[in-house]
């Protein structure tokens, strides 16, 4: 049994000075590593803005490949709050029982597919499919549409040799444009139609605003959910006692999922643009420079988390920032939590056994930090 | 069985009863507006911020350092702020009055 683990590459710098530097397209980023600094900076939305040039708060920067502002993610208050209040109810639908049951059905269908094979490449044959099929629920569109997204492969926005690939991203952007046009011609109960009919400041959303919300929904919830699901499967494969424990006491699913999100931190970090000269970690920071909030490092901060490098599925106090922090916390978190909670529940209820056969890790390169975020490929067997 | 009174930002008043669990779980079960409890009660999301009635605040067990650090950065924070997920029904004085912060 191979031991599962996601190492913490930030420990030394987090303790020594509290930040690192990431070089990115001649627009370097000061990466904040301590939980308290990350939370404080996330809260100070005046000094550390999200509403900069579209794509600039993302690391690596997407400024060169898109002009569309992702909404509400790249918008500052007070407009941010207006968008968010329009969207909140829709993105809370995953709390409903019928939504949860639909995810369970998707997972059971997938399990019947993978159990028929002796070896399954789980990133493409399980996680990508689960992420895509579950997204049809969030968008409230026909299930079959997931096949299109699955056909794009695991990386829609990146290619083998480039972390930001404009041609690949264009596949998604032009797809979204076609869907918006379709919804405009024949409105339904799907998210495109709901957005086209939504109002802000007494006027309807523009098509560009709809585009901004949809790009965020697709981009924000793709690699993150895929990594979280794959890592969950790998963890279960390494710890056969987990599913029987969950089955015996399903009440631990809530704390278990929060702990897995803390430990996995599917999104390593997210940037902000500094609006005025300031100081962080006793270090001067200039206006118009970039900082990033390293959720992955903050989630291993030993000043808050006891035994931060251990997975404790019953961790009761777990103030992790795996879904971000403050007003820009993940809009899709309710959906992601429901996918992960239901995954654990179904795997436990159905007495599924998972074995690891072979794996190739996905290591992100952040200059001085090399971080495992999941797997490029992982071969598992399900029984 | 403890009786707990929730007052929302819209001044709606709910008199609820429970034997166990947290104030967040009680509020969620009764769909009290302004209590989301996204993280399920692990003190990660601060979407269950409440103000305890000043007469009752000292009667509750003190907040942990982790809870206080979360509250420190919250909007609408007061001297009697708590996260509802960290207050157990069984510790609540009879007739506890809480106001939802958001």
From TrEMBL, chain A:
Q: Which GO terms describe its molecular function?
A: heme binding; iron ion binding; monooxygenase activity; oxidoreductase activity, acting on paired donors, with incorporation or reduction of molecular oxygen
UniProt-listed PROSITE patterns:
CYTOCHROME_P450 (PS00086)
Q: Which UniProt keywords apply?
A: Heme, Iron, Metal-binding, Monooxygenase, Oxidoreductase
Any matching Pfam family:
p450
What's the domain of life for this entry? Bacteria
Q: Family, per the entry?
A: Belongs to the cytochrome P450 family.
Q: What is this protein called?
A: Cytochrome P-450 like protein
Q: What is the lineage of its organism?
A: Bacteria, Pseudomonadati, Bacteroidota, Cytophagia, Cytophagales
Automatic annotation (TrEMBL), chain B:
Q: Write down the InterPro entries for this protein, in alphabetical order.
A: 2Fe-2S_ferredoxin-like_sf, 2Fe-2S_ferredoxin-type, Adrenodoxin-like, Beta-grasp_dom_sf
Which cofactor is essential here?
[2Fe-2S] cluster
The UniProt family comment states: Belongs to the adrenodoxin/putidaredoxin family.
Q: Which Pfam families match?
A: Fer2
Q: Please tell me whether the keyword Metal-binding is annotated for this protein.
A: yes
Q: Where is the 2Fe-2S ferredoxin-type domain?
A: 2-102
Q: Does the keyword Metal-binding apply?
A: yes
Give the protein name, as stated in the record. Answer: Ferredoxin
> Looking at the record's lineage, which domain of life comes first?
Bacteria
Q: Which UniProt keywords apply?
A: 2Fe-2S, Iron, Iron-sulfur, Metal-binding
Q: Which PROSITE patterns match?
A: 2FE2S_FER_2
Q: Which GO terms describe its biological process?
A: P450-containing electron transport chain
The record ties this protein, via PANTHER family, to: FERREDOXIN-2, MITOCHONDRIAL, FERREDOXIN/ADRENODOXIN
